[in-house]
Amino acid sequence: xxxxxxxxxxxxxxxxxxxxxxxxxxxxxxxxxxxxxxxxxxxxxxxxxxxxxxxxxxxxxxxxxxxxxxxxxxxxxxxxxxxxxxxxxxxxxxxxxxxxxxxxxxxxxxxxxxxxxxxxxxxxxxxxxxxxxxxxxxxxxxxxxxxxxxxxxxxxxxxxxxxxxxxxxxx
Length: 171
Prior knowledge:
Structural class: alpha+beta
CATH class: Mainly Beta
Number of domains: 1
Distance between the termini: 29 Å
CATH architecture: Sandwich
Strand content: 35-45%
Strand order of the largest sheet: 1-2-3-5-6-9-8-7-10-11-4
Oligomer: single chain
Shape: globular
CATH superfamily: Invasion associated locus B (IalB) protein
C-alpha cells in the first residue's frame, strides 16, 4: 500500500523548511545527536517531528547533485510514527527501487521523483528497528540518467534523535 498522497505534501513542506535555511530550521531544533538532528514544527494537531541526517560519503559518477538526506518523521494527526524517507538530490529512474542496507541487511524502497519510501508502515517499523540497532546505513539508487549512487550514513545518535522527536510529538 503506497502512502504517497500523505507523504508528498509533507516532504514538500520539509523541503521548503530546508530551503529556507538554518534560521527556519533552528526554530524547531530539538538537538543534535551524533550524526542525526531532531526537529519539531507546528503545534497541536499540526505538529510534525522528524530527524534527519546527511551522508558521510557520497559516491557516483555524476556531475551535479542536489542535497541528499534521510528523514524519519512522526505526524501524530495522521497516526504516523517513524516514517523513513530518502531525498536523493536527483530524480530517480522511473519505476526503480532503492536498496537501503543497515549493517548488510537489505531493504527495498519505492521511488517517486527524487524521493524514496518504505512500502508500508510495517516496513518502516522494521527499518527503524534496524537503524536503532545498526552502526551504518548504505543507500543505493539509480538516477533518471542511469547513474548509480551510493550514500553512506552513520547511525550514531539515531536512537537518541528518534526518541527526542517521538517524545516531542507526544505532547
